[in-house]
Amino acid sequence: MSHQTKKSLGQHFLADPGMIEKIVRAVDPRPGQRLVEIGPGAGAITRPLLQRHQTLTVIEFDRDLIEPLAAMGEELGAELTIVHADVLAVDFTELAGTGLIRLVGNLPYNISSPILFHALDHLSVVSDMHFMLQKEVVDRMAAGPGSKVYGRLSVMLQARCHVTPLFRVPPGCFRPPPKVDSAVVRLTPRDPAELGLTQPKRFEQVVRAAFSQRRKTLRNALATVCGSEVIEACGINPGCRAETVPVAGFVALANALGDVCVSEP
Ligand code: SAM
User: Fold this and answer.
1) DSSP string, 33-54
2) Alpha helices, DSSP H only, in the chain?
3) How far is the CA of 146 from the centre of ligand 1 (A)?
4) Residue 261 pLDDT > 60, yes or no?
5) Contacts of 98 (CB under 8 A, 6+ apart)
6) Among the listed residues 62, 101, 109, the one whose alpha carbon sits nearest the alpha carbon of residue 82
7) 43 lines ligand 1 (CB under 6 A)
8) How far is CA 260 from CA 21, 71, 159, 241, in A?
9) Which of 31, 128, 166, 202 is the most exposed place for a label (fewest CB within 10 A)?
10) 200-257 matches 7-189 in CATH topology
11) Could you tell me if 249 and 236 are in contact, meaning their C-beta atoms sit under 8 angstroms apart?
12) Distance (Å, rounded) from C-alpha 225 to C-alpha 258?
């Protein structure tokens, strides 16, 4: 497929057959599963997925890629459903219907975090996700407390999913090559009972406030949300910084605060 790539849409197409195979092997589609690929582009992953799985839904924003993708589906005699839309406007829950979907994609890096949060909003219909992102983002997603890159993204994702970085993908695997290293990550939804989060909205608020001023102590960063005594009662030192608090600590704080209405920080 010849196509002038569009920088504004984060178009870096995979061109390394070995790496493409490695990604498809990591996804390992099984009969009966419903796969949804975000940003199929020129079909680098779409084609081998269809050759192996025969049934696939893809979500692509670039109108110039729709017809070539449809032609690929026909050529392979596969059942390819093309959703021509901005992925952030696609209701995954509606797309899933009564079943579960597996999300796959070499994501447009400029909107990778919004896509991750969008997927979290529909997590109850997602059985797993395999995404390629900037390696630096994958590092942040998987970071633990005490790490320099542990932050809001790490906590929000790890509270809902097991985050498993799989492998690094160097720039030379893409056309055109991006300026940064990439990595493939697997996200598997956690059983909500595992962490016992009862106040998801409050959790979001506490985590946002705690990391909005990373250099402040938790006592100060959360000043508009709760007092030191609540932080202490959760077994957390109010004088520490958010980047040292484990996910379970934020869950305890949110649960302790309950759903009482407080002003936004
Ligand atoms: N999967 C292909 C590959 O690996 O070669 C292309 C990956 S490229 C990094 C990202 C793809 O996402 C592009 O095809 C781009 O057009 C598409 N895209 C960008 N923004 C999008 C959006 N908001 N919704 C859906 N697709 C989008």
Assistant:
1) --EEEE--TTTTTHHHHHHHHS
2) 17-27, 46-53, 66-75, 92-96, 112-121, 135-142, 152-160, 192-195, 200-212, 218-221, 228-233, 247-257
3) 34
4) no
5) none
6) 62
7) no
8) 50, 54, 21, 24
9) 31
10) no
11) yes
12) 11
Instruction: Decide whether any atom of ligand 1 lies within 6 Å of the 250 Cβ.
Output: no
* Cβ-proximal residues to 192 (8 Å cutoff; 6+ apart), any chain: none
Distance 155 CA to ligand 1 centre (A): 26
Q: Residues near 12 by Cβ (< 8 Å), separated by ≥ 6?
A: 5, 106, 109, 174, 175, 176, 177, 178
Phi, psi of 203 (to 5 degrees): -60, -50
pTM: 0.95
| CA nearest ligand 1 atom 21, residue | 61
Instruction: Give 200-257's CATH code, choosing from 1.50.40.10, 3.40.50.1260, 1.10.8.100, 3.90.1150.180.
Output: 1.10.8.100
DSSP 217: B
**Which pLDDT tens digit goes with each residue over 167-196?**
999 999 999 999 999 999 999 999 988 889
Pocket test for ligand 1, best of 49, 62, 173 (most atoms within 8 A of CB): 62
| pLDDT tens digits along 70-119 | 999 999 999 999 999 999 999 999 999 999 999 999 999 999 999 999 99
| Residue bearing tokens 């990778």 | 112
Q: Per DSSP, what are the bridge partners of residue 37?
A: 58, 104
Could you tell me which CATH number the domain at 7-189 has?
A: 3.40.50.150
Q: For residue range 196-236, what is the model confidence (pLDDT) as tens digits?
A: 999 999 999 999 999 998 889 999 999 999 999 999 999 99
Q: For residue 87, what are the contacts with CB-CB under 8 A and spacing of at least 6? A: 38, 39, 59, 61, 115, 118
